[in-house]
Amino acid sequence: QWLSDRKKRALQKKDVDIRRRIELIQDFEMPTVSTKIKVSRDGQYIMAVGTYKPRIRCFDTYQLSQKFERCLDSEVVTFEILSDDYSKIVFLECGRFVEFHSQHGHYYRTRIPKFGRDFSYHYPSCDLYFVGASSEVYRLNLEQGRFLNSLQTDASESNVCDINPVHFLFAMGTAEGKVECWDPRTRSRVGLLDCALSSVTADAEIDGLPSVSALKFDGALNMAVGTSTGQVLLYDLRSSNPLIVKDHHYGLPIKSIQFQPQLDLIISADSRIVKMWNRDTGKIFTSMEPEYDINDVCLYPNSGMLMTANEAPKMNIYYIPVLGPAPKWCSFLDNLTEELEENPESTVYDDYKFVTRKDLENLGLAHLIGSSLLRAYMHGFFMDIRLYHKAKMMANPFAYEEYRREKIRQKIEETRAQRVQLKKLPKVNKELALKLIEEEGEEQQVTRKRKQKNLPSLLKDDRFKVMFENPDFQVDEQSEEFRLLNPLVSKISEKRKRKLKLLEELEAEQQEEEEEPEGKASDAESSESSDDEKGWVEEVRKQRKLLRQEEKVKRQERFKEDQQTLLKPQFFEIKEGEEFRSFKDSAKKQKLMKKTLGDRLKLEEKLGTLNVSDTTVGSKQATFKLKKSEQQKKQQEAEKQHRQERKTLRRSASHLKSKRGRGRLFH
């Protein structure tokens, strides 16, 4: 799609597959966006409306090309084909206009009182029912050429409407999430469905009140309702509860609902995805997610072809052979699909390289994102293969040398595989690993004889991997527990130690001389192990004697260390403002702290620091006197002495004043 015309022509000359590529309908597209797409009842004409400028295009399937194009004054909300061919069409436009077209072109134009959102045609009475931003349903009779009395509903606004093709019941979906059903003969409401309440399921997350965004009848009794929150509800008109509720899980309004009777499928679409699912079980049959947002879906009648109007110039055509045969005007599609199934071929892009964002950062080309040198595709980009090779050479000029070294290393490894392989033991718990290898070899011999399944090895098990890597798991063979639990291990461990030394020597020789060893050292000694009870008891006794001797030696060493250590005096620091009396006070405090609360209270009452009395209410009142420290007592005595001195000074001063007054009176 993003190649220039010149490159396309060059590719057509080179590539046979591109020359064979088919285009079902020539120029099946709109200038910018397509909004609605429908097929005439005879199946010969496909009509689509879009922008910009607002227009309608009619495509003739017999000629596989466009038949005519007409421009309109305002954008089309929806349209309906009244005749079997393209001779009678009605358009509902944005500016409250209703426009009629005949075979030759524009025929008549009128206006409705409020903005319309959808309309349906009632064939028996030739009435058009318009719903929109109003509580009324406007009726326009095409036989008389005038508006009739409108239907007054309980809804504030209506979004969609449809008429049953069997018994002509008129249904409309409201903004409050309800469906009102009306009988056109009596012009009265005959039913009301609350779809908003039924669409709320236990696992659904709904932000607001769901409104009805799509409505479609199937036969006389079935009706499918789509909500603005992404749920599709299938109803039987005889019941107010839905038969099944299907959630798209995108939270986007349902834009179109179609029925596929051959396989009992429902095709529902929102702006992001088209889902096909079984109407009985709700199981997904298949789904399609186009590159651009979907505006409308049209199923070609009695076939497996599906067409979509998108937020893009090109209108998509899908052919699914399982749904039905190809239409008669493109019956060659059946043969092509059979050939494709017999000879599946993968498409290879020779001139372009697919790279991810991480690859671009490694090559230092992240700044090219958004330029014409990179074409966004899926989770990465397409770039010219020549540019990719140049950038790779600049980013890593020694790539060929590394590739050459890797190939040489692989060849050497292949030759080494033919040599006699030495057993590589882990760094931690080597003796335990050697023991497990020996036991594994013995078990394999037994299982071969008995034809049993081999048990998994501990060395290859990831759960015990750390035991042979982490030095914290090293088995201490000198510990008391190990020696008492494994008294006979000492003899076998000596043989294993010899074997380990031989293996280490062989590994060292192999590292020094990268040559193939002629053979592997075998242990000449027999691996005999005494399993007699008598030998086991004697070995346990020996180990216990050794442990006792070791304990005696340790005790003597500790005793010598204790004798050598000299006792050093300890000094304690007294806090400021406190006097050291004796250690008896601290002992008294400790004894007092050990007593219970009741005993301490009794002691405080005896000393006079606590006073407990009964109140009039019946409760107890306790009065405490805080103990004073020596520093506080000294301070209080100093303050008391200071007050007494001030009193004596005041008395002497008053005495002198009185004497002076008497002397003056005498003079």
Automatic annotation (TrEMBL):
Start and end residues of each stretch annotated as Disordered: 507-537, 623-667
GO biological process, one term: maturation of SSU-rRNA from tricistronic rRNA transcript (SSU-rRNA, 5.8S rRNA, LSU-rRNA)
Domain Nucleolar protein 10-like second: 348-396
Location of the NUC153 domain: 461-487
Record field: compositional bias (Basic and acidic residues): 627-642
Protein name: Nucleolar protein 10
Signal peptide: none
Gene3D superfamilies named among the record's database cross-references: YVTN repeat-like/Quinoprotein amine dehydrogenase
A Gene Ontology term for the protein's cellular component: 90S preribosome
Keywords recorded for this protein, A-Z: Coiled coil, Nucleus, Repeat, WD repeat
Pfam families: Beta-prop_NOL10_N (PF23098), NOL10_2nd (PF23097), NUC153 (PF08159)
Origin species: Buceros rhinoceros silvestris
SUPFAM superfamilies assigned to the protein according to its UniProt record, in alphabetical order: WD40 repeat-like (SSF50978)
Acidic residues bias spans: 507-517
Protein family according to the UniProt entry: Belongs to the WD repeat NOL10/ENP2 family.
Location of the Nucleolar protein 10-like N-terminal domain: 1-343
